[in-house]
Amino acid sequence: MVPLVQQLKFSDKISFAPTLAQHMADVYLAKGIDLPDCLLPVPLHQRRLRERGYNQSIELARPLASLTGLPLSCDHVVRCRHTAPQVGNRIDARRRNIRGAFSIRTPVEATHVLIIDDVVTTGSTVNELAKLLKSSGVHRVGVLSLARAPQRS
Description:
Blueprint: H1 2-10, H2 17-30, E1 38-41, H3 46-52, H4 56-68, E2 77-79, H5 91-98, E3 102-104, E4 112-120, H6 124-135, E5 140-148
Helix pairs in contact: 2-4
């Protein structure tokens, strides 16, 4: 699975997203967890979006929304600050790098939000996003990612 995730993220293999999203849906739904009110893909900063040409989290979230019937929230939260890539950073550097990188554009009208990300390594990005959502009135925040990267000690 890891090569597929890397190709989705770094080699423009957007066509892999529906198959990977199907896997995510199967795993999530099999757990019997309460469904959220909406799916919220991790936003990319406009600069990174221009460089890459797409947001891999949105590419996963779109078919996931179709498969689950859940609404997709792509416009409520923005990445307001460009950050250096997290790859290679230790946990403390990742936390500093991502701190304050997101902001609420429009109120999130949901009490339970599921953040969609491609890869979670230390959790710094999704934790920062979850803190923002909780401070804006969201009561419950979950995370669904395609892969969990091993942490370096």
